[in-house]
Amino acid sequence: MRLWGTLIFGSVLAGTGVAYYVRERSQSTGQSYVEVLLQLPSEVRRGYGEARRRARLALDDGLRAARVRERQVDHALVAAAQRNDDPIA
Amino acid sequence: MTDSVWIVGASTPSMALRYAAAFFLVVVGIGLIYALVRLGGTLRSAEKLLTDVDIEVVPLLKQATETLDGVNTELDKVDVVMSSVVDATEKVDQTTRIVESAITVPAKKAAAFGAGVSQAVSSFFNRGADAPEPDAGDSPPNGASWSPPSGYGPGAASPAPTESIGPPSAEPVADSVSEAPPVADTPGEAPPADQASGTNEVSGG
C-alpha cells in the first residue's frame, strides 16, 4: 500500500509538472501540446547535456579555485611561521 | 810642660770629636731603643690582631663552607628542575608541532574545499545565467549527431539548428569547439575539461 501510494503520488506529481511545462512551452512558442510533448525527450536530453557541460566547467572552476585558496592558505601559514620564528622582524 | 802641651795639642780637636761621637752614639742608642720599643708594641698588636683573626675567621670559613655546600645542593636541585623544564619544553614543542600539522592540513583542505564548492556552485548557476537563453522549442541541440525525435515530422516544426547552448562569451573558442553538444556527448569523445586544465594547474602549482 505504501509503495502504491508513493507511485501514485509520484505519477501525479510528474504528470502535473509535465503538464505545466507543456502548457508554458506551448504558450511561449505557439506550438501545440503534441509538438511540445514530442520535443520533450530531446529537450530533456539537451537539458541533461547542458547540465553535464555546466557541471564539468563548474568542477573545473571549483578545482582551480580550491587550488588557489590552498596556495593562499599555505602562504599565510608560512608567513605566520616566519613571523613567529623572527618576532623582531 | 810637654805633657800639658801634648794634652792640649792632642785633645783639642780629638776630644771634641770623641765627645761628639759619644753623644751621637748615645742619641742613636736612645733612638734605637725607642724604635725597638715601638716595634715591639706594634708586633704585639699585630700578634693580637692575628690571634683575633684566627679566632673569628675560622668559624666564618666553616659557615661559608657550609653555606656553599647548601648552595651547591640547591644548584643541583635547580639543575634537575631545569632539565625537567627543558624536557617539558621539548615535549610541548613537539606536541605543538603535531597539533599544528594535525590542524593546519585539514583546515587548509577545508578552506580549499569550501572555496572550490562555492566557486563551482557560483560558476554552475552563473554560467547558466550568462548563457544565451535558447529559443523555446525552436532550438534543438545543435550537433552532427542530433536528429529529431522519432515520429517528429520534418514539416511539422523542424527547427533549424541554432546556437543555443554555446558557452558564455568568456569561454575560449576552442573550448566551445571541443565541447560536443550534450546529445552527442558520449564517453571517450572529448577529454574531460578538468583533465586539461587540472594538469596545467598541478604542473603550475
Please describe the topology of this protein.
The complex is a heterodimer of chains A (89) and B (205).
Chain A: H1 2-29, H2 33-85
Chain B: H1 2-130, H2 154-157, H3 173-178, H4 193-204
Question: Main traits of this protein?
Answer:
heterodimer; A: 89 residues; mainly alpha; 2 helices; B: rod-shaped; disordered C terminus
Task: Give a short summary of the structure.
By secondary structure, chain A is mainly alpha-helical. Chain A has 2 helices and no strands.
Task: Give a description of the structure.
The complex is a heterodimer of chains A (89) and B (205). In chain A, 91% of the residues lie in helices and 0% in strands. Chain A is mainly alpha-helical. Chain A has a domain at 2-62. In chain A, 19% of the residues are buried. By secondary structure, chain B is mostly helical. Chain B is rod-shaped, with a radius of gyration of 61 Å. Classes of the chains: A mainly alpha (89), B mainly alpha (205). At the A-B interface, helix 1 and helix 2 of A face helix 1 and helix 4 of B.
